[in-house]
């Protein structure tokens, strides 16, 4: 499901119980993150639940970034699934240009999530953006001048 279809589906659902069920189902559909990826280096600081985010960068120019992630909390796994839909497979510049706050608002999540979950989502976004900035800086440093 692409982002627009996700927004349409969220808006179609009548109540938040149904939306939470969709969020949980999205989390359940995430591929299992291997144990070796559940390292402290991949752990996202700022989340109440445990969240691990692994990044792979392609050899293309500009490179594309691919993310796999997991959490030990069902709703957070759903938020992880949204994050992956928004960012995985994009270039660092596309990631930095993505207005995730608008997406969050379009899905109606801003008003419905607890402050801790919202803060955790912001921490995940910050981690992705920091990694994108690092890849972009490496790419720029390696570019012939």
Automatic annotation (TrEMBL):
| Segments forming domain Fe-S metabolism associated | 8-130
Question: Could you name the domain of life of the organism this protein comes from?
Answer: Bacteria
Signal peptide residues on this chain, from the entry's feature table: none
List the InterPro entries hit by this protein, alphabetically. Fe-S_metab-assoc_dom
UniProt similarity note:
Belongs to the SufE family.
Q: What is this protein called?
A: SufE family protein
- Per the UniProt record, the source organism is Spiribacter roseus
Q: Which lineage ranks, top first, belong to the organism behind this chain?
A: Bacteria, Pseudomonadati, Pseudomonadota, Gammaproteobacteria, Chromatiales
């Amino acid at each position: 499901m692409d982002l627009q279809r996700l927004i349409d589906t969220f808006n179609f659902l009548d109540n938040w119980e149904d939306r939470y069920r969709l969020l949980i189902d999205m989390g359940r559909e995430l591929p299992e993150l291997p144990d070796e990826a559940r390292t402290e280096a991949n752990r996202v600081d700022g989340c109440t639940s445990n969240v691990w985010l692994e990044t792979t960068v392609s050899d293309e120019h500009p490179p594309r970034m691919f993310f796999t992630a997991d959490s030990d909390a069902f709703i957070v796994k759903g938020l992880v699934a949204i994050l992956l839909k928004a960012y995985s497979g994009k270039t660092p510049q596309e990631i930095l240009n993505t207005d995730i706050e608008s997406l969050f608002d379009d899905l109606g999540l801003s008003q419905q999530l607890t402050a801790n979950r919202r803060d955790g989502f912001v921490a995940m976004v910050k981690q992705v953006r920091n990694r994108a900035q690092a890849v972009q800086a490496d790419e720029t440093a390696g570019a012939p001048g």
